[in-house]
Amino acid sequence: MKTVDVDPGNTAYSILIDADSLSGFGEFVKERFGKIDGAVITDETVDRLYGGELADSLEAAGHDCGKLVVEPGEESKSPEAAKNLYRDLVHMELHRDSFILAFGGGVVGDLAGFVGSTFLRGIPVIQIPTTLLAQVDSSVGGKTAVDLPEGKNLVGTFYQPEAVFIDPVVLETLDPADVRSGLGEVLKYGLIWDEELFQKVNGNGDLFEDFNDQAELEGIISRCCEIKAEIVTEDERDRGIRQILNFGHTIGHGIEAGAGYGEMKHGEAVLWGMIGESWISARRGYLSQESLEEIVSALRGFALPPLPADLSEERLLKYVKLDKKVRRERINSVLLERIGGEAIVKEISESEVTAAWDYLTELGEG
Amino acid sequence: MKTVDVDPGNTAYSILIDADSLSGFGEFVKERFGKIDGAVITDETVDRLYGGELADSLEAAGHDCGKLVVEPGEESKSPEAAKNLYRDLVHMELHRDSFILAFGGGVVGDLAGFVGSTFLRGIPVIQIPTTLLAQVDSSVGGKTAVDLPEGKNLVGTFYQPEAVFIDPVVLETLDPADVRSGLGEVLKYGLIWDEELFQKVNGNGDLFEDFNDQAELEGIISRCCEIKAEIVTEDERDRGIRQILNFGHTIGHGIEAGAGYGEMKHGEAVLWGMIGESWISARRGYLSQESLEEIVSALRGFALPPLPADLSEERLLKYVKLDKKVRRERINSVLLERIGGEAIVKEISESEVTAAWDYLTELGEG
């Protein structure tokens, strides 16, 4: 069992990482908050796999929690879904001291976090992330969101949960693509912040196939949470250093959106994006050729999925620029000076993006 | 010109109260924030009366602001209206440093404040309240909201504006009922906090008919803002002393909702509610009979509208309890020990509510 404390200003909370602990969730909550009432918000997939275990645990500890189940997938992260949940919460007679338990991956965490942060102007939220990506990324930092037809995450809040409860063993039932997607983020923390973490994961791919070394799993996930907590604590409102968390995301986002959402997992696109942005870092002379080769070899080693077959250079560039345009930003990218540190935010040119894309497509064919 | 500084923790801002100053709004913004881009959110009524003056002022100072106009009335304070505004903001290419200018009464302030607090996870908002109620109440305190079919203000955020800009002269074009609605809140501040303010307004009803003493208007409005700022600074999250701002609202809310929303102005219902709750205060022996009579005489002096003709005791009680039930609160009410202070929150019984209602209906007939 590991604990990571997060304290971004006036709202400290803890992240508990404890393998095979889901059945103890109810007791965990009772110890910290007493008996609660509230609503579990989850999706159909997670509910089918783990909903019973969570409900039993809550009931055994004497909590009074209903359940609201949304469809899996990004489509549920909409203003309409939020409104339906608000109405359900009223009918369940939730009040200002009731809890939202966000039980699922990134979509559920973002949606339920947003609903919790705005229902009755904000009620307590506990995040129980069930994907690797959500465990190492979206459950830390207090960002909540819903999407608009015009783009992802355009509406949301900064809102810290009361606690984050992570059971790495629930990852056993993840799709391999979802595991890769989360590993992309784990490797990202290694590359921008902690070489030891990078090397540990790099040499230990099996860990995320058979999930049998619980202590090592807890260690890796808690280290990611620590790194993210350290970064977001310095920069809760996403104005400065937090931007280095976007390593791989400029090109990665172009690939993900250019392919059409749902075609490729977010973290898989970011894996490709990190290779592209490492290549730009090396081409500019920031990163050594040896380090670039080490990164490429490591990231390809995690069964990198093929690039989207019909994604043209023009289309990639369009989506890279579109995202920046909505936010009225230049094409900034995070570049590396070495593995494990010295990540810096720099404007990159369109021709650097397309040259990196040429490099990626060659890699993809090779 | 008067200025009230508000500092609820880490987000200080100023309220400027300046008669006949709307045409100088653009310069005010330029001095404080430089040239801005953004969107004015307003309603059709305010736009028709003052939209041109505001737009000219913004343009003359070199700002780049579009305009979004909603229909007047509570129906615009919906999640659907918020979604439409978000999409419009994307199409106007607003970014994280753009401003929302909330130009209107309480509905516009709540809606535009909510949209501003959640678009791109929060962009700067300036409130330009144009009704007396909004100037003395809803533009201070950082509460934003939209309604659900199940009830008003069930969704929202706590989000402080960058500034509040108040021109009391725009009140000239208000309906008398809207003036009364705002005066209800002004008298409330006097009753719960400041006897001098109560006496000043009590003896000066003409002021709010011909609006010709600008210094006195500025003085009264700024005093209300000061009182509210003082109270909410102590209690930003609405957990303690802020509850005394609900004086008149337990019974007032029952009258407003029982009559059907839109039948009676919020502040008018609160005027009646304050009489009812003062009567309960006197009946319990907290408030002297002389003070009760002074309050009743003062509040009736402001052309109190008739009580809703077909509102039964049962229906009143149902709505008093319904509001509390959604929020899972007992029937609490703010009671007075004297004019201008010692407001205390106490649970009241159903029979006290109905006895107060009997008193009000007799008054209404008398």
Characterization of the model:
- Two copies of one chain form a homodimer.
- The first copy, chain A, is α/β, with parallel strands linked by helices and 366 residues long.
- Chain A has two domains: 2-173, Rossmann fold (3-Layer(aba) Sandwich); 176-365, Up-down Bundle (Dehydroquinate synthase-like, alpha domain).
- Chain A is built from 14 helices and eleven strands.
- Chain A has helices spanning 25-33, 44-60, 79-91, 106-118, 132-138, 176-193, 195-202, 207-210, 214-234, 249-259, 266-283, 289-301, 313-326, 350-365, and strands at residues 2-6, 13-17, 37-43, 64-70, 99-104, 125-129, 143-148, 151-158, 163-166, 332-335, 344-347.
- In chain A, strands 1-2-9-6-5-3-4 form a seven-stranded mixed sheet, with helices on both faces.
- In chain A, helix 2 (44-60) links the parallel strand 3 (37-43) and strand 4.
- In chain A, helix 6 (176-193) packs antiparallel against helix 7, helix 6 packs parallel to helix 11 (266-283) and helix 11 (266-283) packs antiparallel against helix 12.
- The N and C termini of chain A lie far apart (42 Å).
- The interface between A and B is large, with 37 and 37 residues.
